[in-house]
Amino acid sequence: xxxxxxxxxxxxxxxxxxxxxxxxxxxxxxxxxxxxxxxxxxxxxxxxxxxxxxxxxxxxxxxxxxxxxxxxxxxxxxxxxxxxxxxxxxxxxxxxxxxx
Length: 100
Known about the structure:
single chain, 3 helices
């Protein structure tokens, strides 16, 4: 019988490969909307981590929940920073075209 660990590992590997294939085929013009959408998903993950932390009872559960909440917050923040940089690149291109 297949253990739950191998099933979970199989799901992670398949999801990683599928995600890689999808992301590599995204046209350059769609990177900003894609990043905004992923920021939304990361925000949901952050809320889930905070809820899980609220229900944690043992110190190990609390530590894992805290780490998950911190990493989720960093992921959301980093996503918005990257999105802002991408948008600034487009603003510079517009100002160059107006001046030329």
